[in-house]
Design goal:
By secondary structure, this protein is of the alpha+beta class. It has 5 helices and 13 strands. The chain has helices at 2-8, 17-25, 119-140, 157-165, 189-195; strands at residues 13-14, 30-32, 41-45, 50-55, 59-66, 71-76, 79-89, 92-97, 103-108, 142-147, 150-156, 174-177, 187-188. Strands 2-3-4-5-6-7-8-9 form an 8-stranded antiparallel beta barrel. The longest helix is centred in the middle third of the chain and has 22 residues, at 119-140.
Length: 196
């Protein structure tokens, strides 16, 4: 079952009670991604093992529990299900059904200003989230660059942008990450500047 999940959604981190329970799971508003185009549902796990499920037409209170191996049991309309929890990021939760090749994906909208009501809203959310993440990584990271057959650096993207603005170097110089050994990715300063 785990192979199916990890092939579908790579780089999942298993739920860690000490790290995730209080800060990432409890009292957070988790929008169910599966089936959002038909019916939006918001799941809120409460400390007293109450699970609140809010839908447009109804609000349901049910129960959930977690065992020592971080396996959740959740009481649903269809009976009790057993799931294992994973995080893709701090705000993307995946519950993998332990008896079937099925999983449910949730997005934490507690601190998100816009509502998620459709597949398009989710796509917009993910695009914004990962664009911001990439920008932060690129902004803090350092790169070497080649100019006139000579290598220089390392420099941050901000420093490279300043050099381009001052016409010290071309925006079309190839760059490589400090952790890469060559320029085979054919990345240019202009590509980095677009991501800021």
């Amino acid at each position: 079952m785990n192979d199916y999940l990890h092939n579908t959604i790579p780089n999942l981190k298993p739920f860690d009670f000490d790290r995730h329970h209080d800060s990432h799971l409890i009292n957070q508003q988790w929008v169910l991604v599966n089936g959002i185009s038909k019916k939006k549902a918001i799941y809120t796990f409460r400390k007293d093992n109450i699970l609140e499920i809010e839908r447009k037409d109804a609000s349901i209170k049910t129960s959930w529990d977690i065992d020592i191996q971080n396996i959740f049991t959740i009481e649903t309309e269809d009976g009790i299900i057993t799931v294992k929890a994973y995080f893709k990021d701090d705000d993307i939760l995946v519950l993998n059904h332990q008896d079937k090749q099925e999983f449910a994906m949730y997005i934490n909208t507690t601190n998100y200003e816009n509502e998620l009501n459709s597949v398009e809203d989710i796509q917009s959310y993910l695009k914004q989230k990962y664009k911001k993440k990439v920008s932060n990584i690129i902004y803090e990271h350092e790169f070497y660059y080649i100019s006139k057959s000579e290598e220089f650096g390392p420099n941050t993207v901000e420093e490279l942008t300043e050099k381009v603005k001052n016409e010290e170097i071309s925006a079309y110089c190839f760059v490589r990450d400090v952790n890469e050994g060559d320029y085979s990715k054919r990345l240019r300063i202009a590509d980095l500047m677009q991501e800021l």
